[in-house]
Specification:
68% helix; mainly alpha; single chain
């Protein structure tokens, strides 16, 4: 698989996982709130069906299997790990495939847990943390070993990518001891951030050649810096004397600022998804409360509007 397609496909999956996890956490928090107060409410049919089916596990399994096979056969076959001289070949492809296998194990565990197989649900957080830990470990060592061979811009972007994975590992470890919704939301934020940053890396480092055939270049250097985001592989601009310098620290600092923008957008998206689900939960709560008051039933603990949902 080409690096551009690999980053885009993985970015889509991580963004979907981040949004799905925050919606699921908000829904489960609201349901627990109602259960503790004796409120009997029936979620919509599509929500009940979605919770019964192993959607997350099946999506991860299909993606990892397809990514593994595509990584090994496109654009040419790369099943061989060592050449005739016993030298390691196709190192990046096998590193990616190792990460895919780790997430495949998590996907299988998640799918089995959704089907309520006894004892499997307990291991879901462990295997999720394991998958992200494998990803972080391999990315860190690959980055350290190739630091001298990478352009500074490439190194900075991959370093920021590692910073999006590490919080998921740490929160996954802490979730085993503390049942805190804040940890779940931090994991959702970091996962969504990783997805958006993979999009940025794809368009910055691995832009397809077809998108860089006719670059638009201004004489002002500031505009050229922004243009690198879209035409980073085009080292020869049509304007004389305008070339790309991958070792330019100013360029690397610019993308560090772009990373901060990604963090801000990720916080907004995750907060919006949580607020949307909380608003739905409060509407259901008020409807149930109104029905009980109308029938003259004892509302007991139902009177306060939930702020912790």
């Amino acid at each position: 698989m080409e690096p551009f397609q690999s980053c885009i496909s993985a970015g889509v999956v991580f963004c979907l996982l981040g949004v799905f996890w925050i919606l699921q956490n908000s829904f489960n928090t609201a349901r627990q709130f109602y259960d503790n107060r004796g409120i009997v409410w029936t979620p919509p049919r599509f929500v009940r069906t979605f919770n019964k089916l192993p959607v997350e596990g099946v999506v991860i399994i299909l993606f990892t299997l397809c990514a593994f096979c595509t990584e090994q056969v496109y654009p040419n076959w790369k099943w061989k790990m060592f050449n005739e001289d016993s030298e390691l070949v196709n190192q990046s492809e096998w590193l990616h495939c190792t990460i895919y296998v780790a997430f495949l194990i998590y996907g299988i565990c998640k799918a089995l847990a959704t089907k309520s197989i006894q004892g499997v649900w307990y291991y879901v957080p462990l295997y999720r943390c394991f998958a992200f830990a494998i990803e972080a470990l391999l990315l860190i060592f690959q980055l350290v070993d190739s630091e001298d061979d990478r352009p500074y811009l490439d190194f900075r972007l991959h370093l920021l990518h590692v910073l999006t994975v590490v919080p998921v590992v740490l929160t996954g470890m802490m979730e085993g001891w503390w049942d805190d919704p804040l940890l779940v939301r931090l994991r959702c934020f970091s996962t969504f951030l990783q997805g958006t940053w993979l999009f940025q890396m794809a368009f910055t480092l691995y832009q397809p050649e077809t998108a860089a055939k006719q670059p638009v270049v201004s004489e002002t250097s500031d505009f050229v810096v922004v243009q690198y985001t879209f035409d980073v592989n085009n080292n020869n601009y049509s304007t004389p004397g305008v070339t790309r310098d991958d070792d330019n620290t100013g360029m690397a600092n610019f993308y560090s600022m772009v990373f901060a923008w990604h963090c801000i957008v990720s916080v907004i998206v995750i907060t919006f998804c949580h607020a949307m689900m909380r608003a739905v939960a409060v509407c259901i709560y008020r409807r149930v409360l109104h029905q009980k008051v109308t029938k003259g039933e004892d509302i007991g603990m139902l009177s306060p509007i939930p702020n912790e949902v």
